[in-house]
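> call design_seq(struct)
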């Protein structure tokens, strides 16, 4: 059974259709394509006549055979505004509008080039040209490298239809037909964008691999039909024999704004999984910075799991993005699975996810009035090794900035959130928050001095405890000594901006240990970065507000190419900062603990980022002045000249755990490349995942195989090994397969689109 299914994968991959996702083409719009030959045409393309309705005739000899019957010979060329005909001899009957050409016939119109032995051309009732060429070679040159070519005993060329008798069809370059379709008869309907072949045989390197009595495909763009199947093998926990997985998708091109993908997956250990995914554009995007207005619906269903016969496994995922008007945007997502092990057991993807999030959100934004509002409700499902957490049953927020010529700009923020937890032992309740703040910049250019003040109040209405109200005010002062000058670096003319900055923050001290923690986290727990230390608040969320009577000294040096645009990285960026505290106690995020001790100064944080051409280096370090050593660090280095040639290395040490990651791809030839990715906890030796693979690509076909090693030690199952492969033929097989998504997730920076 296994051998037959593998054979079916290879067969179906050769009569798939061209759809969204993977595009195995190197079109004229991509002139740099190392693994493609220089684009060639069947014969040199000529220009049509510039005069409508007239014929330009060039021949060595001409003869009038009878009234309105002419004979041309010797390097004949006939040009009109819609076609060009060249041959050894041409006979023209002006009364019947029939043309007969023989010997080295070359015919050209706006779409096709055809070379053959003889040609007979007529006009239909609508004056459209009808041409029949025998023993012909043809090429759809109007589509460039995307166009088809082949040979045919007879080619019948009509206005929008080409009929081929005993012919071949391939989307490979001229004279490089690694694969082709051979059929008794083919009809290429350019108006319907469809090709139909009778008694079609698919050949790969001259070897027949499949036969279909009737075969239909899309000539260009998207269309309904089979997509490239996906095959992989894997090992179930506790089993010695490896199992296999085969997925056969079918694509429905319903309309330009909607499509449907259905798939049947067979898992040898668990049996059949049914899958469907529907997408539809709803309306044009009204907000330039927003998402496309569309909705998606995906479902997977395993009616009977052979590993657990009493369990039905399923996935349901719905999402929607909608610009109601230029102010309102609606977002929705509902994502659920039958059980927390669905991704490990059935989907075999997203095994690192901890939760599935669902939400409904309505946003209102009026930038002209500096006003925004939102409504949100969310929920989550725990999957894989995740643990329950708080979710917002309902949240409403309003923000407004009041700007006038007579008073300071005033910002007002209001937010109300209802938090719930899956565990009844956890506290739940409603948190209401209000904040008002003002800021003012002194009217001097150097240094730039900005003062601010705010007061915020938070009320907790708790389900199982007494309500709590917390009101905290604060002030701040920033003195910015930024200067800019031109210089040179790495051979570039650059602007260097040096920004020494003194920041003072004051915030009142308030007991908060009895307040539950709904959505707050300590940004200092892993590594303190420059942005963490110079931000206004140590904690995310609103459940903890740190006390402050601090001075922070920071220095940033930014060096940018003078011709750089907004999204370009600095050629060199260096930062360093340290804070000094007047209070040796700080608000703690440990439940039922009000304060924790701290020194009167923070650790020194520093970072260096270098970006020169395709080389990027970055490092963040946290230095303890008391121990006089770096206690935490993150280092990253990458070199990425192309999607098929890059290397990326990273190393992080938070004082207890060290993690190393390496990703890369290297071309062995213009067509062949290897790729690799590893995510390893070096302090324990555990590999989170490891991926190795090889891919082959040219303009005609592509193949890729990948091997995966994923960690299951957290649930006592050791490592899970699996292997997948895909084969794509130019224009006949293209889709975004599960294999593609899995490779891109495990090998960061690798473009898994086979080209």
């Amino acid at each position: 059974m296994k051998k037959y299914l593998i054979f079916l994968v290879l067969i179906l991959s050769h009569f798939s259709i061209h759809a969204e996702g993977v595009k195995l083409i190197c079109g004229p719009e991509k002139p740099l394509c190392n693994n493609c030959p220089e684009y060639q045409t069947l014969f040199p393309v000529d220009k049509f006549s510039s005069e409508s309705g007239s014929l330009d005739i060039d021949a060595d000899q001409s003869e009038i055979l009878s009234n309105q019957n002419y004979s041309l010979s010797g390097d004949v060329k006939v040009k009109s505004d819609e076609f060009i005909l060249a041959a050894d001899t041409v006979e023209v009957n002006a009364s019947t509008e029939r043309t007969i050409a023989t010997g080295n016939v070359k015919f050209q119109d706006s779409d096709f080039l055809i070379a053959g032995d003889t040609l007979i051309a007529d006009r239909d009732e609508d004056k459209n040209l009808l041409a029949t060429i025998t023993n012909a070679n043809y090429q759809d040159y109007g589509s460039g490298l995307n166009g088809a070519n082949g040979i045919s005993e007879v080619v019948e060329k009509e206005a929008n239809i080409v009929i081929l008798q005993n012919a071949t069809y391939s989307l490979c370059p001229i004279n490089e037909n690694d694969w082709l379709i051979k059929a008794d008869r083919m009809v290429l309907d350019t108006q319907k964008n469809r090709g139909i072949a009778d008694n079609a045989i698919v050949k790969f390197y001259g070897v027949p691999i499949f036969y279909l009595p009737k075969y239909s495909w899309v000539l260009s763009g998207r269309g309904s039909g089979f997509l490239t199947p996906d095959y992989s093998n894997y090992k179930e926990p506790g089993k010695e024999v490896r199992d296999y997985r085969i997925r056969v998708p079918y694509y429905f091109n319903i309309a330009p704004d909607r499509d449907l993908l259905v798939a049947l997956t067979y898992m040898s250990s668990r049996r059949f999984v049914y899958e469907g995914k529907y997408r539809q554009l709803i309306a044009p995007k009204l907000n330039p910075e927003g998402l496309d207005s569309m909705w998606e619906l995906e479902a997977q269903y395993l009616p009977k799991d052979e590993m657990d016969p009493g369990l039905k496994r399923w996935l349901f995922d719905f999402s929607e993005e909608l610009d109601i008007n230029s102010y309102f945007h609606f977002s929705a997502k509902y994502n659920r699975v039958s059980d927390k092990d669905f991704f490990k057991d059935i989907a075999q993807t997203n095994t690192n996810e901890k939760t599935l999030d669902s939400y409904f959100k309505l946003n209102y934004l009026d930038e002209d009035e500096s006003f925004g509002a939102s409504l949100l409700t969310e929920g989550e499902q725990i999957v894989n090794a995740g643990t329950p957490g708080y979710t917002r049953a309902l949240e409403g927020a309003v923000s407004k900035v009041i700007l006038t010529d007579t008073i300071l700009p005033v910002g007002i923020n209001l937010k109300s959130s209802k938090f719930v937890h899956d565990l009844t032992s956890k506290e739940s309740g409603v948190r209401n928050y209000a904040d008002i703040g003002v800021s003012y910049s002194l009217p001097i250019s150097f240094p730039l001095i900005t003062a601010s003040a705010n007061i915020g109040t938070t009320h907790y209405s708790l389900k199982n405890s007494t309500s709590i109200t917390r009101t905290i005010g604060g002030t701040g002062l920033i003195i910015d000594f930024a200067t800019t000058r031109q210089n040179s670096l790495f051979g570039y003319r650059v602007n260097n901006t040096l920004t020494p900055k003194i920041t003072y923050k004051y915030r009142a001290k308030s007991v908060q240990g009895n307040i539950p923690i709904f959505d707050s986290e300590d940004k200092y727990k892993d590594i303190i970065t420059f942005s963490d230390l110079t931000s206004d608040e140590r904690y995310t969320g609103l459940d903890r507000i740190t006390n402050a009577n601090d001075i922070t000294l920071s220095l940033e040096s930014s060096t940018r190419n003078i011709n750089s645009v907004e999204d370009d990285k600095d050629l060199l960026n260096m930062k360093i900062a340290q804070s000094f505290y007047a209070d040796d106690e700080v608000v703690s995020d440990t439940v039922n603990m009000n304060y924790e001790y701290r020194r009167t100064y923070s650790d020194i944080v520093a970072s260096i980022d270098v970006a020169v051409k395709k080389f990027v280096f970055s490092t963040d370090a946290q230095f303890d002045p008391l121990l006089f050593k770096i206690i935490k660090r993150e280092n990253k280095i990458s070199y990425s000249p192309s999607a098929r040639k890059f290397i990326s290395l990273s190393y992080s040490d938070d004082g207890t755990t060290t993690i190393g990651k390496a990703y890369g791809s290297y071309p062995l030839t213009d067509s062949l490349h290897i790729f690799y990715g590893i995510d390893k906890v070096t302090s324990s030796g555990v590999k989170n995942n490891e991926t190795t693979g090889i891919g082959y690509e040219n303009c005609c076909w592509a193949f890729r195989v990948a091997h995966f090693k994923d960690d299951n030690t957290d649930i006592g199952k050791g490592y899970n090994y699996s292997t997948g492969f895909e084969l794509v033929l130019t224009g006949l097989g293209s889709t975004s397969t599960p294999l593609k998504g899995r490779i891109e997730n495990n090998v960061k920076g690798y473009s898994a689109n086979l080209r």
